[in-house]
Specification:
Elements (H helix, E strand, L loop, with lengths): L1 H28 L10 E8 L19 H13 L3 E10 L4 H12 L5 E10 L1 H6 L4 E4 L4 E3 L11 H7 L21 H26 L3 H7 L4 E2 L1 H7 L4 E2 L2 H12 L5 E4 L5 H21 L1 H10 L8
Parallel strand pairs: 1-2, 1-8, 2-3, 3-4, 3-5, 4-7
Antiparallel strand pairs: 5-6
Helix pairs in contact: 1-10, 2-3, 6-7, 10-11
Length: 308
């Protein structure tokens, strides 16, 4: 047991040393971006669920899409004089409402043309952040849409009972504990009102971004998914095509004939290290405390927020 503990501690120390070595290397090169110059189309890849910090996705081994990550990538493109247009490759099932709205705002305020290229699925919050773009390109088989709002509340009672944990609640405020137990009829109505408000915001974003009538968007906002071909007929997509077609559309918007394509890396050294170290941390906890403890710890503080 002691030998195994020493091995684990040694591995953690090794990872920390690698981190500091990376810091030194980063400082020495000054974080310089030695990319191509000229008429450039920058390509940003966004994959996974949308969340504010990405911590919610670490248990599944993925950082996902966060406002900070998107902002940093767009800042690179916005500040690079050679970049004349931007292609954002998106593959996402959606996620947090606030994070989706913040990312949409970043895309909206970007003055350089932005073209969305949709992967296998761009649903819910993934479509929300696509709507403000100048053009949207999707494959014929891309799953598009799922315009709606969903809230799901986890009942952890069975897990608490399995671990021998009893919950005692002291509250100030009638509904303060509403997410730690079964909702009353009144609380269901309160949450439905909130959900409807966020639903209206989603419809407005799509209507404005896609230049569609609000009533027309309401007919599409049933939460269902459409194929790329269906989405184009409905006005949710502009062009059916490939990645190269998205590059061509971006070049046309920027009025450049022979664009240089510059793909930004999906993860920096620091983001990759954070993801790896968090995963290792979960493995250590699971080894000493059991997998049930790790699952409970990751879920107990997650707010039951509505999601696009």
């Amino acid at each position: 047991m002691k030998k195994r503990t020493k091995i684990i501690i040694g591995a953690v120390v090794g990872i920390i040393l690698l981190f500091y070595l990376g810091v030194v290397v980063f400082l020495l090169v000054g974080g310089a971006d030695f990319g191509p110059t000229g008429d450039t189309v920058a390509v940003i890849s966004l994959n996974g669920p949308i969340s504010d910090s990405g911590e919610e996705n670490l248990l599944m081994g993925a950082m996902g899409i966060t406002p900070d990550f998107v902002r940093r990538q767009l800042d690179r493109a916005r500040d690079d004089f050679a970049v004349k247009a931007i292609v954002i490759k998106i593959d996402s099932p959606g996620g947090a409402v606030g994070a989706s709205q913040e990312i949409a705002d970043e895309i909206r305020r970007t003055e350089k043309p932005i073209v969305i290229f949709m992967g296998d699925m761009v649903a819910s919050g993934g479509y929300y952040i696509s709507a403000p773009a100048d053009k949207i390109v999707a494959k014929e088989g891309t799953l598009v849409g799922s315009i709606g709002v969903i809230s799901q509340f986890m009942d952890l009672g069975g897990l608490y009972e399995k671990l021998g944990i009893k919950i005692e609640t002291i509250k100030s405020g009638e509904h303060k504990d509403m997410f730690s137990r079964e909702l009353t009829k009144e609380e269901q109505k309160l949450w439905q009102t909130l959900s409807d408000e966020l639903y209206g915001q989603f419809i407005k974003e799509v209507a404005e971004g896609r230049n569609l009538d609000v009533e027309e968007v309401k007919k599409l906002a049933t939460g269902e998914l459409f194929s790329g071909t269906q989405a184009k007929k409905l006005g949710l997509v502009d062009v059916l095509g490939s990645y190269q077609d998205a590059i061509d559309v971006a070049a046309e918007l920027a009025e450049i004939e022979e664009p240089i394509v510059k793909e930004y890396p999906a993860r920096t050294f620091f983001e990759s290290f954070f993801e790896l170290s968090s995963y290792v941390n979960n493995l250590i906890k699971a080894k000493f405390f059991g997998s049930d403890y790790v699952i409970l710890e990751s879920l107990k503080d997650l707010p039951p927020i509505p999601k696009y």
